[in-house]
Amino acid sequence: MAPTPPKTPKKASTAAKRVVSASPSSPATPGPRVRKSQRNAPALGNEMTTVIVGRGREKFLMHKSLVMSVSGFFALGLASSFKEAERGVFEMEEETPAAFSVFVHWIYTNRLFIKKTASPGSPAAEDDDEEWEYLLRLYTLGERLDS
């Protein structure tokens, strides 16, 4: 019988290339990081707008161009002859600062960060009702802001 020639190694698949080997001194990363080009980032500009929220009048300072790009409500209010456009200040007493804070984090990070208010281990903390109620509040806020 004739000897068989040695097999040439196959190229590693793209999935295999993404695997990061862990060294004892550094933990393995959970997967490839998502990187985006700076050219695709929205232009923030240097103009700011202030939104005063709730009965406690909590202030949120945001980039005008960013908030106008994600909200029809703010785009209309800031590009018109309303007093909000002149002053650059919106007052929203009917909103809760907690929900509006989630909105602000969402427009800057494109992620929803929600905190449960119940203490850990309590029956309410185990239940998802509180989170669903909070998401409903966020949805109605998004509808109101045309986001």
Written overview of the protein:
The chain has seven helices and three strands. The protein has 147 residues and is α+β, with helices and mostly antiparallel strands. It has a domain at 44-144: Potassium Channel Kv1.1, Chain A (2-Layer Sandwich), CATH 3.30.710. It has a three-stranded mixed beta sheet with strand order 2-1-3. A hairpin with a 4-residue loop joins strand 1 and strand 2. The longest helix is centred in the C-terminal third of the chain and has 16 residues, at 129-144. Residues 47-116 form the BTB domain. This is BTB domain-containing protein. InterPro entries: BTB/POZ_dom, SKP1/BTB/POZ_sf. Residues 11-32 have a biased composition (Low complexity).
Largest pleated sheet: 3 strands, mixed
Judged by helices, strands and strand pairing, the structural class is alpha+beta
What are the low-pLDDT stretches, counting only 5+ consecutive residues below 50?
12-27
As a whole number of angstroms, the C-alpha radius of gyration is: 25 Å
User: What would you say the CATH architecture of the domain at 44-144 is?
Assistant: 2-Layer Sandwich
Number of strands: 3
Biased composition (Low complexity): 11-32
Protein name: BTB domain-containing protein
InterPro entries: BTB/POZ_dom, SKP1/BTB/POZ_sf
Domain BTB: 47-116
